[in-house]
Amino acid sequence: MSGVELQGQIEALLFASGDPLPAVKLADILAVPADKVIALIAEMATAMEASDRGLTIVEVAGGYQLCTKPQLINTVEQLAGVHESRLSAAAMETLAIVAFRQPVTRLEIETLRGVKADRAVATLMERGLIREVGRKEALGRPILYGTTDEFLKCFGLKHLEELPNLTEFEFPGQSC
After folding, report:
1. In this structure, what CATH number is given to the domain that contains residue 162?
2. Secretion signal: which residues (predicted)?
3. Range of the structural domain that residue 154 is part of
4. Which of 6, 10, 53, 54 counts the most CB atoms within 10 A of its CB?
């Protein structure tokens, strides 16, 4: 099978899935080596970026996903009648704590934020950005929270290691 034919099949699989597909899964479906799939996807992504096409391929959450180019989001939102749904500041603060401190308990989140976090945690769970990852070996065995693949997709991250290192930032009131 030619590279062009394989690219067409890869594009169809990415379109049909909607979610990120790992290269090894694509390779298994197409019965070709994973490194060939990765090379073909790189060619496809380059061709899509260089053209006036509306789609691109991004590597996110451990796989590849067919996505609308960012500059066309307003056009797509008009079709779908989508209204941007933003997280509150409290939810964003809570999400940041979970992302950088995971696994973390609700009490640890509340201690860092200085306020209750029940509503923010519930919102993040509803949106699929955080999930229960276990229980802490402590009195009462509190629930531990961590981020999800949806979090990675939402923020365009391949894996958690792409989060910035907090030691690189200066914070107001922080002593040197």
Report:
1. 1.10.10.10
2. none
3. 89-168
4. 10
58 and 21 fall within a common domain:
yes
Contacts of 32 (CB under 8 A, 6+ apart): 1, 6
Query: Can you tell me the distance from the alpha carbon of 52 to that of 79, in angstroms, rounded to the nearest whole number?
Result: 19
In-domain check, residue 84: no
Per residue in 54-112, pLDDT (tens digit) is 888 888 888 999 888 888 877 877 776 655 678 888 999 999 999 999 999 999 999 99
Q: How many percent of the chain have pLDDT more than 90? A: 45
Q: What pLDDT score does 174 carry?
A: 52
Tokens standing for residue 159: 């894996």
3-state secondary structure of 9: helix
Same domain, 73 and 100: no
Q: Which amino acid is at 91?
A: A
Angle of CA points 122, 125, 127, to nearest 5°: 110
- The pTM score is 0.59
Residue 140 lies in a domain: yes
